[in-house]
Design goal:
2 domains; two-stranded antiparallel sheet
Length: about 110
């Protein structure tokens, strides 16, 4: 995780409190650049409840000007950390796909 000076030693990071941190659902994502930093905003859009007959639901939907997106978190990082984050996301997708393949083949686990 961290290296110091010419001594070349490394200190590992340990994630503390992960299980106590709430999990929030995000289905909307926004990336912006501000003063050389990347700002990622994760949000949640919930479709409105449209009630009644199909015709009534269609009319209700036509009345909507927008669907609100509630920001869940904003994270700022430099481009090097963004590339690291992209690598973590790519590895996570590969792990997910591999687990799905194993489940389809009847064997769950590594």
């Amino acid at each position: 995780m961290a290296e110091a000076g010419s001594e070349g030693f490394e200190i590992s990071g340990v994630w503390v409190g992960v299980d106590e941190t709430p999990i929030v659902f995000a289905n909307q994502f926004l990336g912006t650049v501000f003063e050389g930093e990347v700002v990622l905003t994760l949000g949640q859009a919930t479709p409105p409840a449209l009630l009644g007959t199909p015709e009534q639901q269609l009319e209700q939907a036509r009345q909507l000007n927008f669907i609100p997106i509630k920001p869940m978190t904003r994270v700022a990082m430099n481009v090097a950390r963004l590339r690291e984050f992209i690598g973590v996301l790519q590895q996570t997708v590969e792990n997910h796909e591999r687990q799905g393949q194993q489940a389809r083949e009847g064997g769950i686990g590594p």
